[in-house]
Amino acid sequence: MCKSIYKKKEYFDNRELSWIEFNYRVLSEACDTSLPLFERLKFLSITSSNLDEFVMIRVASLKDMVHAGYTKPDISGMSPAKQLEEISLKEHVLVDTQYEMYNSSFLPLLKDNRIILIPNHEELSPEQEEFVDRYFMREVYPVLTPMAVDSSRPFPLIRNKSLNIAALLHNSKTDGEYEFATVQVPSVLPRFIRIPSHDPESISLILLEQIIEKNIDKLFLNYDVICAYPYRVMRNADLTLDEDEAADLLTEIERQIKKRQWGEVIKLEVENGIDERLLNYLKKDLNISDEDLYMVNGPLDLTFFMKIYGLEGFDHLKNKPYKPQPVPEINPEQDIFSQIRNRDILLFHPYQSFDPVVDFVRNAATDPNVLAIKQTLYRVSSNSPIISSLALAAENGKQVSVLVELKARFDEENNIIWARKLEQAGCHVIYGLVGLKTHSKITLVVRREDDGIRRYVHLGTGNYNDSTAKLYTDMGLFTCSRPIGEDATAVFNMLSGYSEPLAWNKLTLAPLRLRNKFMECIANETAHAREGKKAHIIAKMNSLCDADIIAALYEASSAGVKIELIIRGICCLKVGIAGVSDNISVHSIVGNFLEHSRIFYFYNDGYEDIYMGSADWMPRNLDKRVEILFPVEEESLKERIKHILDIQLRDNVKTRIKLPDSSYQHISPYGNKPLNSQEYFCKEAEKTTKMHKKAKNQSRTFEPITRPDEII
Description:
The protein is α/β, with parallel strands linked by helices. It has 4 domains: 1-119 and 298-318, Up-down Bundle (Methane Monooxygenase Hydroxylase, Chain G, domain 1); 145-244 and 264-290, 2-Layer Sandwich (polyphosphate kinase like), CATH 3.30.1840.10; 336-506, 2-Layer Sandwich (Endonuclease, Chain A); 510-711, Endonuclease Chain A (Endonuclease, Chain A). It is 37% helix and 21% strand. It is built from 19 helices and 27 strands. The strands form 4 sheets. Strands 14, 18, 19, 20, 21, 23, 24, 25, 26 and 27 form a 10-stranded mixed sheet that branches. Strands 10, 11, 12, 13, 15, 16, 17 and 22 form an 8-stranded mixed sheet that branches.
């Protein structure tokens, strides 16, 4: 454990505020005028989607703590109540910034590019009104369920994240009091509808809620509609599982998923200008305080821009799609197993295709020499070819064991469906471990060969998801190393039967000793620095918020270790603390792809240890999840990973550097040629493919294709 002098509260940033700072970095991509318009709209949409999940999970968790009377401060010294206060202030500013961009930049830019988004149904022309009214009666009206609220009809359940319209009604015949009614905007219909345009060169779009608002009087025929405004709620979606008491984990998770729809309302979004009477009614019945009320100057839920991104005929407003390149070490026409026997193979997604991973499982399913397939699944695609191959393998009589993590947040329903499908096919399905999430990414194929049984292993930093593999940057490794194969068998035996081996060869697991492994590696560099030797740490991950790890890095920095961190999201470590973090730099790359790989480099007195894995430096990954850290030992592969890290550290286009005040600043090339690491790797992979086609017998030793300056 590190010395307490490195654990002062002022040495740490709050995790939640650090996340909000990250979402600002995502939003800043929407401000980047060098990007095509639709790419900028995509980042505006992602910012909103990120914020929804943050509120439903992180803010909800803090509210639970406050309700329970929990007052213990976090590593930065902030109590849950204080965190909520600061989050509300910063989140309101973030939302206001989003809508300022929407109104001042994106609406005019869309119009300049022949896309007219009509903000209000009152701005429709007579021809457009006629079209909208017909559309309402034909397509919308039959789907709607208007709900009045009175003494006999209580306030209805407003579903989490659903878009709704609140109306104030008055019955002029009875001259009674004003009444409240609500109608849900149906998610089964398109959010925006194309309508006739005055200009044949342009297209006009209107949002579904505007069509409903315009025609809402048709839903309440005996009433005068005084006013109608859209609103949206966020509910506590953090599942609370008592796994020790649950007789059937799958059934318990299904029950908890349903409860998400009526969890505590923790955020209310309404349009600016909403009638005060309506607003007070909503606040009272939803039990919302002012700090959880968001009044926005525009349409609610900006994630609809992701659908606008899909509009046909506007390819000039998007980046040219990148096609993942073949892995040069793998010939799809040859046996995958013989190629892995020849040498370890490194995969770099999405620059290289995820197909070899899919083919690895598919070929194993039909290979008569394969005896067993074992795999962990955390998040998979909605039409996963890997699931189909595992089911086929079981039908072919192979032993198939699959750990499906039912507690993968917001993928629970999807994973339950796949788990049942695999069971029906004859697979042995494990539903995770009590008290732990299985977040590791590992596949084991056991094959009978001429010289005996051989084990083939795939290890990765990302999910077995063929869809996100095109969007997330991840690393993978194919190997038939005997020590790793033995460890892989031990992993699955531990997951299925709780039998931990006496010793491990190469793999390091959480929650067993992964924390200790990282602490030992950092302490080793610290000791070398104190001896006057060169000491260097490079660590790439999604998030860093573990107090012990951060304190160890502070101690290493104080001893003179050069520490370079590439952290996309949350970073609770502070830079620039005199005598503490002088030797630490923090880089955050936010670009077209989502940086997701976890890579750890330790100079180790010249022996250069490199590890990859599924775990970030967070307490949940090190203590509450099953994670795997694996070494990269072949020198050619180590050189390649060092090259990847070097390019990312030299990125001066999409990198932001953390400053001592915990803000982030874009790096400026300062006369150097711009280097966008993601574009670089795309071009490098494409060039490798071209060279490989010309010379299929080229050396397998990795060499950077050319200098970065040349490739850019």
